[in-house]
Design goal:
It is a single chain. With about 475 residues, the protein is mainly α. Helix content is about 70%, strand content about 0%. α4 packs antiparallel against α12.
């Protein structure tokens, strides 16, 4: 795909197709891609989820990285090298399983992006409460105040998405740098309290076995998939990256050891300070900072600065995922599987403005709907699990490509990638099956599970109906 968008006079093409010239600007270099990988994968809440396993967290992180992260990295590098095209996983699935397989993969990835953007933004009021201190403890449970904050931030990232990646990549880069510094503070907390002789549980990398119960399995499933997924997301922007076949693979190699070290060492600090069973799954890092540093003096200032860095990461991640969401309908529209309305670009910014506004409206609706009648922790977990279940379906498709994809495509891939795909498929399937089990206190566990399962089933039923009607419409138009 040639880079024809550097000149503002380039023509606006509504359906160029993933293999042909397009009017998108190639803004992303290797540095941007590495930082985007860290930003997308390393969330602040997952060290709390893993911390729920106590001193078994190190062993569980190692197991998760062995059976899921390494297969994911290998598959992403292999498929992107073969198909470095705008739309990423959608294009891969389309080539492997045909239009319906591609459409359902894009649909689930799109729904995931919408829901997880809402979930990330939803966490910000809780993080702000820790930033301000005990006087703001009421904020996360005040629906009016928290929704006002979240919707204002949604408007800001929507504006940035319309402007394009020349702005957006700096928001993403700042967010990635912020999370690296925040984790550095978190990891160094045991040294801080040791120097000041403050009691703590001790930071250990003990290889302790977890409890054999459903809660431990649910936590492992969440930290395995929820924490470690995301390496393939940057491939959505392959058409906006410089030398995507090479640079995206290099970004995976560079970012992976950083990501793994941040998760293991960061969780160790959470376990060292937070009491098991009382970890805040929405904001475990701010909670740990307040326990270790307190609410006065220099410790309070350091905690506030670090929590502010986490806010920058949340804004960067929500902007990054939201921007990716807006590219999917555009890529699917190039194949005419959705109306061409989604492919129309801003006359100056060359961004899919209609797709952006549609996604923003849906995120807003989801935030308001998820907040109705439940507490903050349950609403956050509902948003997270519903989005992850859709994402898990897209990963099943991704891992299945070297196993059961089109014969010509499978022959072009290394033979060992099939066995890697089997391992990753099994790990993702486990996470999918266990995801309906709630590991936080919820109003009604059965209702909670029904919401997760029902949401995924209903959304895919809608996708099938839409696809059937769309293909019939295209057939009538062509005859």
């Amino acid at each position: 795909m040639a880079d024809i968008a550097e000149s503002p006079s380039a023509p606006t093409t509504t359906a160029p197709g993933p293999d042909t010239d397009h009017p998108l600007s190639r803004q992303l270099g290797l540095r941007d891609l590495v930082l985007a990988q860290v930003l997308c994968v390393v969330g602040s809440s997952w060290v709390g989820v893993a911390g729920g396993l106590g001193r078994a967290q190190t062993l569980m992180w190692c197991a998760a990285m062995l059976v899921f992260y390494l297969p994911m990295a290998a598959i992403v590098i292999g498929l992107n090298s073969a198909m470095p095209l705008e739309g990423g996983l959608y294009v891969w699935a389309h080539r492997a399983f045909g239009p319906l397989g591609g459409f359902l993969t894009a649909w689930n990835l799109w729904v995931y992006g919408i829901a997880v953007t809402a979930a990330i933004l939803y966490a910000i009021p809780t993080e702000l409460a820790y930033l301000i201190g005990p006087s703001a403890a009421w904020l996360p449970e005040n629906h009016l105040a928290s929704e006002a904050i979240v919707i204002s931030l949604l408007a800001a990232i929507t504006l940035a998405a319309v402007h394009g990646l020349d702005w957006g990549k700096w928001i993403h880069n700042i967010g990635a740098i912020a999370i690296v510094f925040a984790y550095a503070v978190l990891i160094l907390l045991p040294a801080w309290v040791w120097l000041r002789h403050i009691p703590n549980h001790g930071m250990e990398l003990a290889l302790q076995m977890p409890r054999r119960d459903l809660r431990s399995m649910a936590l492992f499933g969440q930290m395995m998939f929820g924490a470690l997924c995301g390496l393939e997301y940057i491939a959505i922007f392959a058409g906006e990256s410089r030398q995507p076949g090479r640079s995206i693979a290099r970004s995976v190699w560079i970012a992976s050891p950083i990501i793994c070290a941040m998760f293991i060492l960061g969780t160790s600090s959470v376990v060292a300070f937070a009491t098991e069973g009382k970890i805040d799954f929405i904001a475990p890092i701010p909670q740990t900072l307040r326990i270790a540093l307190g609410n006065t003096g220099f410790g309070n200032l350091l905690a506030m600065v670090t929590i502010l860095l986490l806010q920058l990461r949340l804004l960067g991640a929500s902007s990054y995922i939201f921007t990716g969401v807006t590219r999917l309908p555009m890529a699917v529209g190039w194949d005419e599987l959705v109306p061409q309305w989604f492919t129309r670009l801003h006359p100056r910014r060359r961004t899919p403005v209609n797709s952006i506004l549609c996604a923003a409206a849906l995120v807003c609706v989801l935030i308001v709907a998820a907040n109705a009648g439940v507490h903050a922790q349950e609403a956050f977990q509902l948003l997270s699990n519903a989005s992850l279940t859709h994402y898990e379906l897209t990963y099943l498709a991704m891992f299945a490509i070297p196993i059961a994809g089109a014969a010509a495509l499978r022959k072009s891939l290394p033979s060992w990638l099939k066995w890697v795909g089997i391992v990753g498929f099994a790990a993702t399937l486990f996470s999918l099956l266990i995801s309906a089990y709630p590991f936080v206190n919820v109003v009604d566990p059965l209702t909670y599970a029904a919401k997760i399962i029902g949401t995924v089933a209903a959304s895919n039923a809608i996708a099938l109906v839409f696809y059937t009607r769309r293909t019939k419409h295209l057939e009538r138009r062509r005859t």
